Amino acid sequence: MSWWCSARGTPWDWSWQPYPGVWLCVLLLVAGYAASVRHAKRSGAPEDAHPWSFAAGVIAFWLAADWPVGPLGTGYLASVHTVQYIVFSMLVPPLLLYGLPTALFRSLAGNPWFAPLVQLLTRPLMAFVIFNTVLVATHLPAVVDGLKVTQVGAFAVDMAWLGAGLLFWWQVLGRVAELDPLPIPGRIVFVLLNVFIPTVPAAFLTFADYPIYAVYELAPRMSHLSAAEDQQLAGLIMKIVGGFTLFGTASVLFFRWYAKEEGEIF
Amino acid sequence: MTNTSCIPSWAPRWVTGIRGSRLLLLTSLLLVGVACRAPEGGGPLRGTPLGVLTPKPDILLTTTDGAAFDFPRATAGYVTLLFFGYTHCPDICPVHMANLAAVLHKLPSTVAGRVKVIMVTVDPERDTPERLRAWLDNFDRDFIGLTGSVADITAMQQAVRLPPAVKEGEGDTYLVGHAAYVLAFTTDDQPPVAYPSGTRQSDWAHDLPQLARRMERAR
C-alpha cells in the first residue's frame, strides 16, 4: 500500500487503491479549521469564517489528490497532471483562505515566531516569484521525472503547488487590512502579470516535437491519447483553463473596484 | 539601518526584494529552455552497439499475410528495427511500438522511408496473424509482423543473442517474459544497436537519421 500517489510504471487498472496520506492531510485540514474557528470564538473575534468555502476547498483537494485522479496525474497522463496543478494552485488555495477566520491570520502575524516569516512571504513580489518559480520548476522534465516516481517527491510537488497557491491567492483576497493588502488595482495588475509566465511551460507542452516527460511517455497507455496528444492537451489546459481562471479573477476584481468607486462617487 | 542595495529606501515594500527574486525567475526560465530543447542529430548514438558483430537472422518466418519472409533479403538496404514481443503485453511492447510509430511519422520521408520495423511475436499461440496485423495497424500499417513455430522463433532470438521468451502463468491470461530490446540492424559490417525498454521518442529521433546515413554511406 502507498501512502501517496507516485508513478509506478505498471499497467493502469480501475481497481481502487487507498492513499492514507491523502486522508491524513484532509483530516489535518479539517482539524485545523475546527481549531481556528474555536480559537476565534474564544478570543471574541468577529465571526468571518466561511465553512462552505473551506469545505469546498478540502473536497477539491481530496478529489485531486486521491484515487483515481491522483495516480493518473502522477504516473499516466500529463493532462491530468495539469488539471491537478490548476486545482492545487488555483482552486483549493482561494477556497481555503476565504474559508478560514481572519483571526487565525491576525494571530499568526502577531506571533513573534511567525511574524517575520509572514512579513516576508506576504510581500507581493515574493508571492509572485515563489508562485512562478514553483510553476516553472515543477514542470521541468528533470524535476517531474525525478520526483514523480517517489511518494515523497510526488507529495513535495503537490505541497509546493498548494503552498505557492496560498501565497498567490493571499494577495488576491487581501482579507486582513492590518497586513497591508494591495489596493484592488494593484491586485488586478498582480493577477494579470501572472498570466504570462504559465505560457512558457504551456508552450513547451503544446509545441514540443516529442514528449518532454519520460514518466508520461513511457507509462503504459491507459487511454486512446498518444503521449504527444496527451502532452498537447496538458499545454492547452494550462493555458486556457489557467488563463481563464486568472482573467476571470482580474475581471471580478475590476468590477468590485468599479462598484466601489461608483459607490463612493454617488 | 543601512540600505546597501541600489533600490532606494523609499521604494514600496513590494519592490525592495526585486534583485534576488528576478534572478531566481530568470534562472528558472532559462532552465526550462535548456531542459526542453529539441533532440539534436549530432553526438554519439543513444542506443548501445552490441559488442559483437551479429548478422541478420536467416530463419524463415511468416508474415501476417501468410507469406514466407526471407529476413536478410527483405530487409537489405534498410535500417531494420527488430523486436520480439506480443500483443497481450501490458506495458513494454505497446510503448515501444507507439514511440517508434510516433517518431517515424514525424521524421522526413528520406529517413522514415529507409526504416523497416519488424515485430516477431513470442506468443504465436494467441497472436494469430489477423490479431497481430490488427494490433500493429494501431501503430503503423507498414510495421511488419512475423510469426512461426515456437522452435523457429526461439532460434531467431538466439541467433541475435537474445534470451528466448518464457511463458509466465497459466490459463488464457498468461504473460510472456521476453527481452525488451529493439535491435537496429544497419550494414553487415556493423554490430546491431540495442535500444532497451525506456528508449524515448527523442532518442529515436536522434539516432534514426544517423543510422539511415550509415546505410547511405554503405551503398
List keywords for this structure.
heterodimer, A: 266 residues, mainly alpha, 13 helices, 72% helix, globular, B: Glutaredoxin, 8-stranded mixed β-sheet, 7 helices, 36% helix
What features would you describe in this structure?
- The complex is a heterodimer of chains A (266) and B (219).
- Chain A has one domain.
- Chain A is 72% helix and 0% strand.
- In chain A, helix 1 packs antiparallel against helix 2, helix 4 packs across helix 9 and helix 11 runs antiparallel to helix 13.
- Chain B is α+β, with helices and mostly antiparallel strands and 219 residues long.
- In chain B, the strands form two sheets. Chain B has an eight-stranded mixed β-sheet, sandwiched between helices.
- The chains are: A mainly alpha (266), B alpha+beta (219).
Question: Short description, anyone?
Answer:
Chain A has 266 residues and is mainly alpha-helical. Chain A is built from 13 helices and no strands. Chain B folds into two domains: 1-37; 48-218, Glutaredoxin (3-Layer(aba) Sandwich), CATH 3.40.30.10.
Spell out the blueprint of helices and strands.
The complex is a heterodimer of chains A (266) and B (219).
Chain A: H1 20-42, H2 51-65, H3 69-75, H4 78-99, H5 102-110, H6 115-121, H7 124-137, H8 141-147, H9 151-173, H10 184-196, H11 199-207, H12 214-217, H13 227-265
Chain B: H1 18-35, E1 48-49, E2 61-63, E3 68-69, H2 71-74, E4 79-85, H3 92-106, H4 109-112, E5 115-121, H5 129-137, E6 144-147, H6 150-159, E7 166-168, E8 175-177, E9 182-185, E10 193-195, H7 201-218
Parallel strand pairs in B: 4-5, 5-6
Antiparallel strand pairs in B: 1-10, 2-3, 2-6, 4-9, 7-8, 9-10
Helix pairs in contact in B: 3-7
Element-by-element helix/strand order of chain B: HEEEHEHHEHEHEEEEH
Q: Structural class, judged by helices and strands of chain B?
A: alpha+beta
Distance between the termini of chain A: 63 Å
Query: What's the SSE pattern of chain A?
Result: HHHHHHHHHHHHH
